[in-house]
Amino acid sequence: MWISTLLISFLPEPVSVPVLGFLSSANVSRIGGSVTVSCESEQGSLPIQYTWYENNSSGHSNISNANELDLHCQSFNHQHHQYYCSASNQLGARSSAMVKVTVFNNGEICSYVTEINGTISGALWAEDKVRGVVGRAITIDCHYAPMYRSHTKYWCRSSSHQCTVLVETNGTQGQSGRRSIIDNPAQGIFTVTVEDLRSGESGWYRCGITTSGNNPTFVVYLRVSDEPVSVPVLGFLSPPNVSHLEGSASMSCESVKGSLPIQYSWYEKTPSMDSKISDTNKLDLHCQPFKHQLNQYYCKATNTLGTKSSETVNMSIYNRGGKYKYLMQLSHMGREYSCETFTTVSTASFMIWEVGRWLLFALLMISTISVMWFTRVTKTEFHCEWPPAIKHCRRI
Question: pTM (2 decimals)?
Answer without folding.
Answer: 0.57
